[in-house]
Specification:
Layout (H helix, E strand, L loop, with lengths): L1 H14 L12 H13 L3 H6 L10 H15 L6 H11 L2 H4 L1 H9 L8 H29 L5 H34 L1
Helix pairs in contact: 2-4, 2-7, 2-8, 4-5, 5-7, 8-9
């Protein structure tokens, strides 16, 4: 009976493909709006940098644009369409992101930076979802591999999820600290 149950569950697990017909979680319009807002508002990057890192963006071009903005901010240079375009050119990524025209289009995607923090959090949540999907796919693949020790697999899963949650908790803590400071 137990063998029958195991056999049935194994068949079910093998037949299920969770990725068929599903797009990874992403919000390209919000990514464009956040990048556009950073090009328009000088203080927008400070807000966004506490929440996002380049790999949080789904579209690779957006990762490069965010990296260029991050580079400029790190050098204490102004962030606008012209400086970002020039930084992307210096990085050798301008044509890869769609050229100067795409950079100018980003500013038309947003009227203001009023909701940039909220939009950034949605982008970050989608990034976390993609990371969980990626990790669970690796765990599933390794679980089918008889040469992988189950204890090692569980430890790897625990460590990976812990690291992912720590990154999330650190970003959430930046929002709690001002509240605690005000209360004290």
């Amino acid at each position: 009976m137990a063998d029958q149950k195991y056999s049935r569950n194994k068949k079910t697990a093998e037949n299920v493909d969770l990725s068929v017909g599903k797009m990874p979680p992403q919000a390209l319009e919000l990514e464009e709006a956040v990048l556009g807002a950073m090009l328009l508002e000088k203080d927008a990057f400070t807000t966004v940098s506490e929440i996002l890192k380049p790999e949080c963006f789904y579209k690779e071009a957006h990762q490069h644009i965010y990296s260029a903005i991050n580079n400029l901010f790190g050098k204490e240079q102004p962030v606008d369409m012209l400086t970002v375009t020039e930084e992307l050119r210096r990085m050798g990524k301008l044509e890869e992101v769609g050229g100067a025209f795409y950079i100018t289009q980003l500013t038309s995607r947003v009227a203001s930076a009023a909701h940039i923090e909220y939009h950034s959090r949605i982008i970050y949540q989608n990034f976390l979802r993609r990371e969980v999907i990626h990790l669970s796919g690796n765990f599933q693949t390794n679980a089918y591999d008889d040469s992988v020790d189950v204890e090692d697999l569980l430890e790897e899963a625990e460590n990976s999820l812990f690291m992912l949650s720590q990154g999330s908790m650190k970003r959430d803590a930046t929002q709690i600290n001002p509240v605690i400071s005000d209360a004290i």
